[in-house]
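Example 9 (inverse folding). The structure is encoded as follows.
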């Protein structure tokens, strides 16, 4: 009996060393002493060394109690302690020493230790990546500020009946259009956008330059209709239901280069790809869906997979599809994050067009699939960037997590999040060079460049007129006999200069407005 008690004491002491003492076990073995000579009383620890050893054992030590139970013949006294420790409910008839030893061995053999695996969500959330500003990419977004302001103003007139809008109505919509200056001042700086008729009732209408641009846009849409149809089909193929609400497509159509009247000019031309279900309404605000008619394997290839196929044609060996990681200059990742990114990149690439219903939301594979979807969506945009709230509209269809925006900052070598304009804009880093110039050019980018050229032409005329007025002011300053004319021109120029300076460098008006 003494020998059996000694074995039980050594067994329970070993278990307490692994897991920390339990009051039920230690109370029954309080007659023994630990190796350090300290009595193991109820609820007491065996010192800092025991706690440290318990923490260092980890999950792998779950297998040791099973080996100990199989290698020791225990008395009834030890079985009670062991059953309390292992949370076993043994009948009273099994408390006899001979039966208890066999029962404990059988019970221990039935114990299947479940290793505690750290979930991917816990690993990811515990690794914080600091956000660092990229001046080159921020400057690229800031350069489009005037373009966005002018496009909103022009769209307000083009969407009016007959493409004509009373000028007094247009001047009252400055806040909705997010213009930094008054509408007349903005049109004076860019006179080639809109034509304003003479009083008493001025009317704003498209200028001859803008009408020529609209003709060019219609020809460009006609030329790249197959590209736009395949792009729209890809967006639908990523969806888990193979359908997208028309309202969500309309909210993001300009980012993907899709025309405003895509339901009339694009969808009916491809009945083998698209099917319109429901009534979209006059302004695409109804309860309608755009479904995919037939799955096309040629379109079900991401940009990363297409790039791997191109390299295979050149080299002869197809590389493994993976993301291009390009950290900005001066960016540093901590060691744990570098190791996590390295292991994460070793995972197989999951196509955004593949079925992801079997992936656990907290698994690293689901994280890789999420990054693949975001990468593919940004690759389909014209400028390889998109505001985050618009991407969030597709969370349900694309099976994106609620905290998908954190994935952009968690992978700074793939994406960049700009805060210019008071709104988050996700940028595909590999599409831009170190100077913030877009190198991955989209065919529909020509439309924006033509519009910007019209704006610059009008602004050049405005500056030339302003210089002529300055020269006239200088001439009248030299002539002392024209004080009245000088005062009149001075007042006019000061008003224009004041409005020019009032615009400033504030870019808070860049918020995305549909």
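The amino acid assigned to each position is listed next.
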């Amino acid at each position: 009996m003494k020998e059996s008690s000694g074995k039980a004491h050594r067994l329970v002491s070993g278990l307490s060393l692994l897991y920390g003492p339990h009051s039920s076990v230690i109370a029954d073995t309080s007659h023994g002493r630990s190796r350090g000579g300290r009595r193991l009383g109820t609820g007491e620890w065996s010192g800092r060394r025991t706690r440290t050893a318990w923490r260092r054992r980890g999950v792998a030590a779950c297998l040791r109690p099973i080996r100990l139970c199989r290698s020791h013949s225990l008395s009834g006294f030890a079985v009670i302690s062991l059953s309390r420790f292992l949370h076993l409910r043994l009948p009273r008839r099994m408390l006899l020493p001979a039966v208890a030893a066999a029962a404990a061995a059988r019970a221990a053999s039935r114990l299947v230790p479940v290793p505690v695996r750290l979930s991917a969500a816990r690993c990811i959330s515990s690794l914080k990546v600091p956000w660092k500003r990229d001046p080159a990419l921020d400057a690229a977004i800031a350069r489009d500020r005037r373009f966005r302001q002018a496009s909103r103003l022009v769209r307000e007139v083009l969407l009016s009946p007959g493409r004509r809008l009373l000028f007094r109505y247009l001047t009252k919509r400055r806040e909705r259009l997010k213009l930094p200056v008054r509408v007349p001042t903005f049109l004076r700086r860019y006179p080639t956008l809109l034509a304003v008729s003479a009083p008493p009732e001025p009317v704003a209408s498209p200028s001859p330059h803008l009408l020529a641009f609209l003709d060019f846009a219609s020809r460009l849409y006609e030329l790249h209709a197959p590209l736009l149809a395949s792009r729209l089909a890809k967006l639908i193929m990523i969806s888990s239901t193979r359908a997208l609400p028309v309202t969500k497509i309309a909210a993001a159509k300009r980012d993907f280069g899709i025309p405003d009247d895509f339901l009339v000019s694009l969808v009916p031309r491809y009945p083998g790809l698209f099917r319109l279900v429901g009534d979209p309404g006059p302004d695409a605000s109804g309860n309608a869906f755009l479904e995919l008619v037939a799955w096309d394997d040629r379109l079900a290839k991401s940009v990363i997979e297409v790039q791997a196929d191109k390299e295979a044609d050149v080299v002869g060996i197809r590389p493994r599809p993976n993301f291009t990681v390009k950290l900005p200059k001066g960016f540093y990742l901590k060691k744990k994050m570098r190791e996590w990114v390295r292991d994460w990149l070793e995972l197989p690439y999951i196509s955004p067009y593949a079925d992801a219903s079997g992936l656990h939301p907290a698994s690293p594979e689901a994280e890789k699939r999420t990054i693949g979807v975001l990468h593919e969506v940004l690759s389909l945009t014209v400028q390889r960037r998109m505001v985050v709230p618009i991407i969030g509209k597709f969370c349900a269809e694309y099976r994106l997590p609620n905290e998908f925006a954190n994935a952009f900052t968690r992978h700074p070598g793939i994406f960049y999040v700009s805060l210019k304009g008071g709104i988050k804009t996700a940028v595909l880093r590999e599409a831009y060079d170190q100077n913030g110039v877009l190198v991955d050019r989209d065919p529909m980018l020509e439309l924006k460049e033509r519009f910007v050229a019209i704006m610059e032409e009008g602004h050049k005329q405005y500056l030339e007129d302003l210089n002529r007025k300055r020269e006239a002011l200088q001439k009248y300053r030299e002539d002392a006999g024209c004080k009245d004319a000088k005062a009149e021109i001075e007042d006019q120029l000061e008003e224009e200069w004041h409005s020019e300076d009032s615009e400033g460098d504030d870019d808070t008006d860049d918020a995305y407005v549909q």
